[in-house]
Amino acid sequence: LDNLVAQAKDILRTNDLGGYTVPTKGLYPFQWNWDAGVTALGWLYVDELRAWTEFEKLFEGQWENGMVPHIVFHQESDDYFPGPDQWKVEGNPPSTSISQPPLLATMVRIIYEQSKDKELAQTKLDALMPKLIRYHEWWYRERDPENTGLVSSYHPWESGMDNSPAWDDVLQRVPQVTRPYQRRDLNHVDSKQRPLKEQYDRYIYLVDFFRENDFDYQKIYQNCPFHTQDISLNAVLQRGTLDLIHLNKVASVAVDMSSLEASAAKAEEVFPALWDAERHLFLNRDHDLAKTIPVSTSGGFMPLYSYSATPEQAALMAAEIKEWLVLGPSGLASTSPLESTFDAKRYWRGPSWLHINWMIADGLKHYGHDDVAEQLRQVSRAIIEQSGYFEYFDPITGEGCGGKDFSWTAAIALHWLL
Ligand code: DGY
User: What is the second-level CATH architecture of the domain 2-417?
Assistant: First the structure.
């Protein structure tokens, strides 16, 4: 155990490029939004000041409109595609033009509450609050301009669950880019564990589309060929907003939160429409077809984490999760092992991810399903004991996949498993 703790701390130190942590060297050489939040949680067990710096560095990339990009390109690297020359966002530091599941506020709350240096925590929280509030306000203003209660996503990368089968049909409506380009991810990871070329062609089309539409949120809302309402992202946003409302009460200067409170209340009203009574989980929504997407993914359990399920739904989800763990005992599969599209090693089409296991376990505990939460913890611990700190894991064999020495896997281990 001591060895695993030392290894996890070493990974954070090795991936630290001076105030920000790369997810892993080579494959992902910049600072990613949701990785940064989870990784900060790991720094809490190494160096509290450094945990706060992770957020500060990320917010250096915050846009005028409040958006926090999914990647902040703090320095150049030839290891990654598409880099800043592709996104063409003016700004210092340069960034991408999309965001990622906004778990930052929740991570800030955990670090604020669990850190030992309370004076430091108060100063850092007070400075971060206005930035976090602007970020959440951006989601509701620009990503739900019609005030439906669900925010929109325009790229599979925005979901963080890039090649999830949930996006397959919507992605088919995105043309394949015709210009030549060179992927870099396959220099680092076996192509069987990564998205297909056909998907990349569409991912890159969207990067061009945002730029050609001047990053204008109204044009993109109207015309983006990829337009989803991602249940997991919406749940992460909901939980983050609830945590932000709480943090406002402990911040030195409290501000008016009525607009965020109204947004959270609205979301609470519409989540029930995404419940699938046969599958026993929530579904993503296809915006243009105005219907739910019938694919069972681990994201469908995320309303546990945002406290958006009824106790009855939570009990059904807890039972469903136990069944998934019978079929895939090495962590919660990202796509149900019963889906025809399930692929045990291919990124978000099957593998289990430690931070998702943790968030869902956190939700299960909230609803009193401590036994299933503990089961998720035990299986998560078993996979790092077996395979080490990989990016994701084959949910059937526990084999480590994707990048190795991965920051958020190490961070979740320090916070939850060791
Ligand atoms: C990638 O490049 O694979 C990332 O997931 C994009 O955010």
Answer: Alpha/alpha barrel (1.50)
